[in-house]
Design a protein that fits this description.
transport; mainly alpha
Length: 225
């Protein structure tokens, strides 16, 4: 969303910029498989959640000109997903009797989808509210007496191609100022959202030791599909 709304990237450019997430998630599969039967799954899950939280922390100082290079902390997110998701499933369902597994699996999927929907709604609300708040705060400073704004305004007027049409020139300048303020407000809102997600993952990481220890399965069950 940041790359599309703020940077104006196309779908192909967005996919290229976030490509590192999938690459590092695939690279982490053999590493996770090696440790899954040797280390307590809770430790692996904590590692994965911590990587995700660290990735969000690395995104906090985001600016409007970030691209694929600055988004390399997504590698931590890819590694974190691989180390967090499989242990979550095993720790949740691994200790249940086969007779209860089917119903438990359905409930687990329901709660996962419900949690995802709530998380998306919260992030969307946070982005909307914080964008409006940051925009209003920035707009308060776009007034006469702001030397930087006046210099930018004058440069825009000098570069305008409206001849002597003063109203058209002023309208163009106002649109440019609005666009710049909105761009920065959106960027600051994404930074706030990354920090909020980081806090959520930090809390989740600290709660993992409360889960009951379950050993990783050595092979697929008869109900696997």
């Amino acid at each position: 969303m940041f790359l599309g709304r703020v940077r104006g990237y196309s779908a192909l450019e967005i996919g290229t910029a976030v490509f590192s997430t999938g690459v590092f998630q695939i690279l982490a599969i053999p590493v996770y498989a090696f440790f899954a039967n040797r280390v307590d799954l809770r430790w692996l899950m904590m590692f994965g959640l911590a990587c995700f939280a660290l990735s969000m922390w690395e995104f906090a100082p985001i600016t409007h000109d970030w691209g694929a290079v600055q988004l390399l902390p997504q590698a931590l997110r890819g590694i974190g997903q691989q180390f967090a998701v499989p242990p979550t499933v095993t720790l949740t369902l691994g200790g249940l009797a086969p007779a209860r597994l089917k119903l438990a699996s359905g409930l687990f999927n329901l709660m996962r989808n419900l949690g995802g929907a709530i998380g998306i709604a919260l992030c969307a609300t946070l982005l909307n509210d914080r964008t409006n708040q940051h925009f209003l705060r920035l707009a308060e400073h776009l007034r006469p007496g702001n030397e930087a704004m006046e210099q930018l305004q004058q440069s825009l007027i000098n570069g305008a191609a409206f001849g002597g049409d003063t109203l058209a020139t002023q309208g163009m300048v106002l649109r440019q100022l609005w666009s710049l303020a909105m761009r920065e407000a959106q960027t600051m809102a994404y930074a706030d959202c990354f920090l909020a997600i980081m806090v959520g993952f930090a809390v989740a990481t600290l709660m993992v030791p409360l889960m009951r220890k379950v050993t990783a399965p050595t092979g697929p069950s008869s109900d696997a599909h």
